[in-house]
Amino acid sequence: MIATFAIRRLGAGFPRMAEQRFSHDFSTLQQLAQDVLEYARKKGASACEVDVSEGFGQSVSVRCGALETIEHNRDKGVGVSVYVGQRRGHASTSDFSPQALRQTVEAALDIARFTAADDCAGLPEPELLARDSLDLDLHHPWDLSVEAGIELARRCEAAAFAVDGRISNSEGATVSTQQAQFVAANSLGFMGGYPTSRHYIACSVIAGESDAMQRDDWYSTHRDAARLDSPEAVGERAARRALARLEPRKIATGRYPVIFEAPLAAGLLGHFVQAASGGALYRKSSFLLEHLGKQVFPSFFQLSERPHLRAGLASSPFDNDGVATRDREVVRDGILEGYFLSVYSGRKLGLPSTGNAGGSHNLILKPGEQDLEGLLRQMGRGLLITELLGHGVNYVTGDYSRGAAGFWVEAGQIVHPVEEITLAGNLKDMFRQIQAIGRDVLVRGSKQTGSLLIEAMTVAAG
What are phi and psi for residue 173, nearest 5 degrees? Predict the structure, then answer.
């Protein structure tokens, strides 16, 4: 059975190095953006939007105690979109010199002049633009030396090997720290931007020997390194997950209840977001077309978007169009109340932007009252799915077919691991047939959800 254990956190006093810094002051990025806007206007653009960004970071990995990789990254870029009436052109450069910026603007204008007019093209309506400055606590530098990063990765992997002698090999442990900053601006007077950070610790190990080997992994990510799970906790969890998969058995093909473990439940929410996104909808390539205001999930299903969570992995005061983000209920009592629309896709659909150019912002599925063990008892007999393989999702029809692995459950208890099975169903049915949501909430990117119990799916044994 999958074990649960206390999560230890990284505390203060970790080895640090002299603070790493951005190559440019934030004010420099603002001036570069302003220079682009002014030059675009001078060259005849009727409107312009620009994004100036830079980032840097490092990643170290070890395998079986030995250093495997040290990676440093530092990048920068300017993206320019210009409009000549309703004809749009876009160009980009990684060169911040005045000459390169002018050439980029001119290249975008050349493209626009030879592009067909689009009635939906153009900047947002001014009243939609973000005007308030919000500090969402998104930047937490982690001045981690390479040596300290290597030590963390070794501790993570060593903790995995220490769990059980059957942990026979490792695919490595990785520690990564990243920082970025950007400025977005347009010719309507909008200018916004901020620095961000994202750090993670990950581990993947192998249990067993010869033909009886199984692998699994775990990771922890956060804006603030002090809120990461400890390297030992990450390694231990990866090891226990791999051990739990040893000695899998076959099951008969049939139709069974299924629990999607929380990390995979986040993927199901991702399928929903894709189907409810403006691009898929206006291209008529979504099974949720014309479902606004209709029942899509059970009546207990409540899905909220909270863009302004402090230190949230998907928090932002505005979207990629500069449109202000806002709290909203995407699904209320199972009814779809909002799509995910940019300015352009909204115009194509005759709807206002929802502030989702670039994706969703902290989708939170209201948890139920039971933990994973409680969901297993409620299911009684069926499958707990902990891994999915392949990309068998048809967003036009909702048809769903993916390879999977997990655990067979009898009388509410895990009996044995299962592998080489195929799950098949339709997302429309799967969404409606959700019977319970766990309180084992996990944050994965822009989604926060517990495990999901689905009434039944077709399971084909390999």
Answer: -120, 140
